[in-house]
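Illustration 12: Phosphate transport system permease protein.
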Amino acid sequence: MTSATAAPTPPTTKKRTKRRAGDSVFLGLSTASAVSILVILAGVAIFLIIRGIPAITANWADNTSLSAIQNPAQVPWTSFWEYVGPLLWGSIWAALIAMVLGTPVAIGVALFISHYAPRRLASALGYVIDLLAAVPSIVFGLWGIIVIRPLLLPLSDFLNQYFGWIPLFSGPVSSTGSTMLAGGVVLAIMILPIVTSITREIFLQTPRLNEEAALALGATRWEMIRLAVLPYARSGMVSATLLGLGRALGETMAIALIISPSIIYSVKLLTDGYNSQTIAANIALNFPISDDMQRSALIGTGLMLFVISFGVNMIARWIVGRSGSSATRKPKRRREGKAA
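Figure caption equivalent — predicted structure in token form:
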């Protein structure tokens, strides 16, 4: 009885794919760029914490240098949080005014460029909008002083006369135009190119088949935009809006030149001398004339602005992620009734 011998199988060898030199270089550069961003962000945070902690933990009641930081009421500050609170409010309040005034205009301009304007006009208008992002903030500030402040004086008188019962428009109207309303209008124009450019690109990425299907079903152009374009671009519009909010929160020179600031809590838009100061403008105005402890306090306020900006970005990522997951979520099927 003979047993059949199986032929020996050759050993299997794994083929190693050789990585090209260009791929290795690109991988190294991209990895180094990602790591450098994290290192720079951590370095900025560490610098702000180290330089701001002495003023944050100091006893302001016993420190005449700290309690005398730009306090028109001559009331000594008792703590860092009492000092930074009105500045945080002023930064958020000015940014919110800019977003309320600028975001609808920016989205409307983006829709006009992407879906209504002829091609030549759309390209020219888009080029002009992009050029606004290259204008320095100091130029916007000078333009706000010379043009915007006198231009808003009649509107301020009208709002105060007929809507003065609203706290936003109450109080004596400024004769110079150095109001939070003027600062908010300039900030709204400054965020216009950022929000417009991003939302325009998002609108142009809407699937063509979705738009054609809506039009084929008898929808008007606006109905097509409302049903096909805006739902698709929802997360992109949120991202663009929050990027504009970040630009408005960190703006310095335009606010410092236009408004007449005070470190107070105020919602008045038309008064002079009752405008809440922003953190960035306060640092720019007081840093050159401050001593070491006062500079530590200013750096501490910069740390608070850093935390606020970081929180805004985190909220933006959460909103975008949630809207993206809800868009890809499968609809639930209704339970079918039992057959008789």
